[in-house]
């Protein structure tokens, strides 16, 4: 008996960087691809290269996920195409610098892309894949989801949103045949930095991972069944301890009385 062909993977932000590297790696694994991004010229060049080098089917799907109507088109494709069994939810942007000094319009655009669009596509995939009984959702977050003191607070919050959404979907979809992985890269050599006005060359060399290494590590984590993958973290036990500490809080997060330290103190007569 022959194994079934890998499901078609839809990748957002596929024209460069992390998305383009996922496209290369998944094509090598035999996945047909639907590549989503704004830059049609880059998408076509990538698609032609992957068709020639791997023989898989590659469709270019131009869309600007900053536009709600384009998000709806992509969500509709995920829900309406039974061949699609993998979503790499990668499209995003960054704004650098202090939140208090940032352009509110840029922050709003970042929330639209990193949160509104990404969550809409994740939900579309969760619903479609659960109905089909199989599928994989890969949500690209960031280690900054765990480090609110660093970089831009709104950017970090958008990545924390994707981590929490992923964990919630993992709980909801348990037993459905749908896998959900959150990937939390550290600093990675991609164009997101220059677009945010940051020169990545100013970072210590040991601080920045190459995009190919990062994606290869993320896919290795997926193969190993990880629900949260931190490509740079040396000890998986450290994440397990972090999660255990978080879960240990749950029994006391909601109670019928305030904690003793918040109650009025008795006054001696």
Automatic annotation (TrEMBL):
It comes from the Bacteria. Pfam families: adh_short (PF00106). One of its GO terms (molecular function) is oxidoreductase activity. CDD domains: SDR_c (cd05233). Keywords: Oxidoreductase. Transmembrane segments: none annotated. It comes from Neoroseomonas oryzicola. Belongs to the short-chain dehydrogenases/reductases (SDR) family. The keyword Hydrolase does not apply. PROSITE patterns: ADH_SHORT. This is SDR family oxidoreductase.
